[in-house]
């Protein structure tokens, strides 16, 4: 019998603990900073790190695909995880008003596997095409004593005018929140996803209950959406803040403002989330604090610009900025 009220922390990923480590041990331990040309702009903790290059700032971010790779291994299907890897990086650049330029990848593998590497490169190339970036290098390492299976991560760089960085500092109550749909689970929360599926006795090769034409594994491997269409938006309109909704769900919004959010008309929740929630007995709050729940990217702007921005996207106005807290259709999330 499936246990009730499954949680991300119970699956081995404690978001609060990880954030405490990032803001405490890591941030306090990294004290040296270069001076002059190439000095850092801002502090550690933003979606991307910025480096002073005069009129412009060079932006850098790094991320991986996570335990979604274990489902790719189970399905012997690795041709989309490269898209995930690039998406997780470039989406973190977009939110700061940065245009991505280039990418380097790092593949660590238990033992050489030509077909696996070939498929990974297919996905990386497609991700680069979608993001309009060049893959300028990378590394493949065989680490049999450390790695079981394989891991995929990468680093993206981009540029932004130093006076054009989107920081969230101008956000104020009454501003409009625009949500852009996700393509599915993206690349977060998979420790919990896998626990839910595997403890239920299902296999990734089983038919998807709500779409018999697709397997569970195929649905869970749907690649992360790359939000390249926001580049002309933040160049043309007064975007005050943006967020990439990754692990931690709506908690990511705390990274851009101390104000709160009222989602009175959220985007529809895709069936993959409602299926997982029911299968794992997961409560609403845990779902919204773990997954994107159908909203993978958020744009915050003033009322005057909101309509024009919506017309440039497939999203919609989902709510507004309030003084404090976060609610979804009246249900308090924090």
Automatic annotation (TrEMBL):
Residues in PurM-like N-terminal domain copies: 48-160
Primary localization: cytoplasm
Taxonomic superkingdom: Archaea
Catalyzed reaction equations: 2-formamido-N(1)-(5-O-phospho-beta-D-ribosyl)acetamidine + ATP = 5-amino-1-(5-phospho-beta-D-ribosyl)imidazole + ADP + phosphate + H(+)
Keyword field contains S-adenosyl-L-methionine: no
Keyword tags: ATP-binding, Cytoplasm, Ligase, Nucleotide-binding, Purine biosynthesis
Subcellular locations according to the entry: Cytoplasm
Listed GO biological process terms: 'de novo' IMP biosynthetic process; adenine biosynthetic process
A matching Pfam family: AIRS_C
InterPro entries found in the cross-reference section: PurM-like_C_dom, PurM-like_C_sf, PurM-like_N, PurM-like_N_sf, PurM_cligase
Enzyme Commission designation: 6.3.3.1
Residues annotated as domain PurM-like C-terminal: 173-325
CDD domains membership: PurM
MF-aspect GO terms: ATP binding; phosphoribosylamine-glycine ligase activity; phosphoribosylformylglycinamidine cyclo-ligase activity
Family statement: Belongs to the AIR synthase family.
Protein name: Phosphoribosylformylglycinamidine cyclo-ligase
Organism of origin: Methanocella paludicola (strain DSM 17711 / JCM 13418 / NBRC 101707 / SANAE)
Gene transcribed to yield this protein: purM
